[in-house]
Write a structure and sequence with these properties.
The protein is built from 9 helices and no strands. With 211 residues, it is mainly α. It folds into 2 domains: 75 residues, Orthogonal Bundle (Tetracycline Repressor, domain 2); 116 residues, Tetracycline Repressor, domain 2, CATH 1.10.357. The radius of gyration is 18 Å and the shape is elongated.
Length: 211
């Protein structure tokens, strides 16, 4: 649910794939087209309770074409979220001088415009906690590890710059920021009157050094 965190210098997960030619390149392009269309559809309504065949109809491809590129409904949903995240990461890689907590808050506000993707993310994480969902489990486990690593690196930079209290463990701060961001966005989906802005501001204030 949190948008892509500021990338660690050593993180190459968002690196562009090598250029290819011929039929393989066409297949990659076709898969990307399907994902782009699916992102548009899911951004507003999510994909809960929708079969793979119904998804194929809605995004304008045959069921056979969809299953050619994606082994299962869950595989498609995982790849839709990964691609949406990659696209955001490309557009907004520069976080400027804001802190990790402020960056996550900004991501949460941007996500208000794509409630379906927030719902999709929440569904994948919920599925990851249940047996029999290997794609969702692998996705959520890898993503939390990567986001936590990158946010921890951002927190360390904030501490060196004097923007975050130096007496706090960076990994613990990162874990708290992620939990707050995900939880507040879930509350916003259920009740838009929840004081999300005030809660984010409170977290930033609690992490700010006192003179």
């Amino acid at each position: 649910m949190t948008s892509p965190p500021p990338a660690d210098d050593a993180d190459t997960s968002a690196a562009a794939p090598p250029r290819t030619r011929g039929p393989y390149a066409k297949g990659v392009a076709r898969r990307r087209e399907i994902l782009d269309r699916a992102i548009e559809v899911f951004a507003q309504r999510g994909a809960e309770g929708t079969s793979l065949r119904a998804i194929a109809r809605e995004i304008g491809v045959s069921h056979a074409a969809l299953t050619h590129y994606f082994a299962s409904r869950e595989d498609l949903l995982v790849e839709v979220y990964r691609e949406a995240e990659r696209q955001v990461n490309e557009r907004e890689s520069d976080t400027g001088d804001i802190t990790a907590a402020e960056s996550m808050a900004a991501s949460a506000y941007r996500n208000h415009a794509v409630p379906g993707l927030v719902q999709l993310y929440s569904s994948l994480v919920a599925s990851a906690l249940e047996p029999g969902h290997p794609e969702a489990t692998a996705f959520a486990t890898e993503r939390f590890t990567r986001v936590r690593r990158n946010v921890t690196a951002h927190v360390r930079r904030d501490q060196r710059a004097g923007r975050v209290r130096a007496d706090l463990d960076p990994a613990a701060v990162a874990t708290l920021i992620i939990a707050a961001s995900d939880g507040l966005q879930t509350q916003h989906l259920l009740d838009a009157s929840a004081p999300q802005t005030e809660a984010h501001a409170l977290l930033v204030d609690l992490l700010t050094p006192r003179d």
